[in-house]
Amino acid sequence: MDALLQFIFSGMTVGAVYALVALGFTIIYNASDVVNFAQGEFVMLGGMITVFAHQAGMPLPLAAAMAVVAAAGGGVALNRLAIEPARSAPVVSLIIITIGASILIRGAARLIFDKQLHRLPSFSGDTPIRIMGATILPQSLWVMGGAVAVFIGLWLFFSRTLTGKAVLATANNRIAAQLVGINTRWIMTLSFGLSAAIGALAGVLVTPITLVSYDVGVALALKGFAAAMLGGMGNPRGALLGGILLGLLESMTAGYLSSQYKDAVAFIVILAVLFVMPQGIFGKKPVERV
Amino acid sequence: MLTVEGLRSRYGRIEVLHGVNLQVKPGEIVTVVGANGAGKTTLLKCLSGTQPVSGGSISFRGQSLASVPAHGRLKLGLAQSPEGRQIFSNLTVEENLRLGAFLYTDDRVAQDMGDAFAMFPVLKEKRNLPAGGLSGGQQQMLAIARALMGRPSCLLLDEPSMGLAPLLVAQIFEVVTSLRDRQVTVLLVEQNAYGALKIADRGYVMETGRITIAGPAGDLITDPRIREAYLGT
């Protein structure tokens, strides 16, 4: 029983990280139908920039804020320099461009920073909180709280604000969006900036627990992608649920089977989703009449 | 209100508009009729800014549109209800209408939406359903209503009768006529030459990228050349 609860806690913690990555996917996907595989790199940048700014003597909150802003700038640059010039290319080409961008960012991070593992001090100390025989780190609560806060923010953004609707409209029909006066270029800039900022926030929150190095992005992007697929691509609710579910599956596998199989879970989930329910849990079947 | 002079446009190396001249005065309903592939839709796309112009000029209310991007033209009062409706299929009917008034956040938006529902009661019934599930006629109504939400002074209508049952065609043309009372100038592009000329003040006939005949709609409808080519008599 204690063990089960412990697995649930650790599953929820990593799940929250996957959910944050998946939420980042959601925005860009909603605006452009593109799955941005450089999303994991923004998580890495969030962690790395915070670490180095903090080491340089900057207070932690300031360093974190700077990292989030810098990553958002990176997202905007990715859109302006790589996605926008290829705008008329098919979506698959754009996705491949994001993979290329992720390799570039990773390489640059290795040169600019270093190849070491880094960590940040926990925000609220390292004293584990005991709940019914299991323990949870205060930092885990920060990660989960962050995922829930970002989820609520995004959900409100897409369902309640005109700008959020404009993002959805841009993805659905770019020309029609322009005809109602939406500046679709600006919507894309906004989406990439926002998405990168969310990724960086995830990086800041999780670095005290999982550490960060220049190459943590690949695995995170893949797992976030699996989470987004599981929940239903493009749906913030799906991203949150998919992330948590994937995290729980991973920690159960590690706990009850073998931790060697842990990383296979994400891939099995991707395959299972594709075979059984390609729309994911919350994904909508496209309705279209011609 | 809208003046087009020597307009040229091309798809790649193939020029499809070879110097089109056209004028729309305030309060008019002007129609451009012609066969499939004559360049009517390309002309409207140039006017709304979604198709690049390779020569000539377009001015709207005295202002050149050359440097105004597509998304900036509605702000000047120029709206388009595009060919094939182009509604936001994954959003609800009401969200589609709200986005039509994307530029506005004042109280008139709710009022305009009320007007749209009064004009097309079926849209009110289906306001919370995804627009992609509407029938072709309902989607056309939504496309027109959405364009009107943007408070245009001039509306470009592309083939509103395409693919609709005769009863619906009559209803759509009635709506177009009623735009006159709302002080909306209309440029209507149609393959249904008879229906369009009947409600229009003036008409242009377009053939392979050129305007070949122009005149009052009443004259065109009796013009033997047009009767033979487009009206089937």
TrEMBL record, chain A:
<keyword id="KW-0813">Transport</keyword>
<feature type="transmembrane region" description="Helical">
    <location>
        <begin position="60"/>
        <end position="83"/>
    </location>
</feature>
<dbReference type="InterPro" id="IPR001851">
    <property type="entry name" value="ABC_transp_permease"/>
</dbReference>
<dbReference type="GO" id="GO:0022857">
    <property type="term" value="F:transmembrane transporter activity"/>
</dbReference>
<feature type="transmembrane region" description="Helical">
    <location>
        <begin position="264"/>
        <end position="282"/>
    </location>
</feature>
<feature type="transmembrane region" description="Helical">
    <location>
        <begin position="89"/>
        <end position="113"/>
    </location>
</feature>
<feature type="transmembrane region" description="Helical">
    <location>
        <begin position="7"/>
        <end position="28"/>
    </location>
</feature>
<feature type="transmembrane region" description="Helical">
    <location>
        <begin position="186"/>
        <end position="207"/>
    </location>
</feature>
<dbReference type="GO" id="GO:0006865">
    <property type="term" value="P:amino acid transport"/>
</dbReference>
<keyword id="KW-0029">Amino-acid transport</keyword>
<keyword id="KW-1003">Cell membrane</keyword>
<keyword id="KW-1133">Transmembrane helix</keyword>
<protein>
    <submittedName>
        <fullName>Branched-chain amino acid ABC transporter permease</fullName>
    </submittedName>
</protein>
<dbReference type="InterPro" id="IPR052157">
    <property type="entry name" value="BCAA_transport_permease"/>
</dbReference>
<comment type="similarity">
    <text>Belongs to the binding-protein-dependent transport system permease family. LivHM subfamily.</text>
</comment>
<dbReference type="Pfam" id="PF02653">
    <property type="entry name" value="BPD_transp_2"/>
</dbReference>
<feature type="transmembrane region" description="Helical">
    <location>
        <begin position="134"/>
        <end position="158"/>
    </location>
</feature>
<dbReference type="GO" id="GO:0005886">
    <property type="term" value="C:plasma membrane"/>
</dbReference>
<keyword id="KW-0472">Membrane</keyword>
<keyword id="KW-0812">Transmembrane</keyword>
<feature type="transmembrane region" description="Helical">
    <location>
        <begin position="239"/>
        <end position="257"/>
    </location>
</feature>
UniProtKB/TrEMBL annotation, chain B:
<dbReference type="GO" id="GO:0016887">
    <property type="term" value="F:ATP hydrolysis activity"/>
</dbReference>
<dbReference type="InterPro" id="IPR003593">
    <property type="entry name" value="AAA+_ATPase"/>
</dbReference>
<dbReference type="InterPro" id="IPR027417">
    <property type="entry name" value="P-loop_NTPase"/>
</dbReference>
<comment type="similarity">
    <text>Belongs to the ABC transporter superfamily.</text>
</comment>
<dbReference type="GO" id="GO:0005524">
    <property type="term" value="F:ATP binding"/>
</dbReference>
<dbReference type="InterPro" id="IPR052156">
    <property type="entry name" value="BCAA_Transport_ATP-bd_LivF"/>
</dbReference>
<keyword id="KW-0813">Transport</keyword>
<protein>
    <submittedName>
        <fullName>ABC transporter ATP-binding protein</fullName>
    </submittedName>
</protein>
<feature type="domain" description="ABC transporter">
    <location>
        <begin position="2"/>
        <end position="233"/>
    </location>
</feature>
<dbReference type="InterPro" id="IPR017871">
    <property type="entry name" value="ABC_transporter-like_CS"/>
</dbReference>
<dbReference type="GO" id="GO:0015807">
    <property type="term" value="P:L-amino acid transport"/>
</dbReference>
<dbReference type="GO" id="GO:0015658">
    <property type="term" value="F:branched-chain amino acid transmembrane transporter activity"/>
</dbReference>
<keyword id="KW-0547">Nucleotide-binding</keyword>
<keyword id="KW-0067">ATP-binding</keyword>
<keyword id="KW-0029">Amino-acid transport</keyword>
<dbReference type="InterPro" id="IPR003439">
    <property type="entry name" value="ABC_transporter-like_ATP-bd"/>
</dbReference>
<dbReference type="Pfam" id="PF00005">
    <property type="entry name" value="ABC_tran"/>
</dbReference>
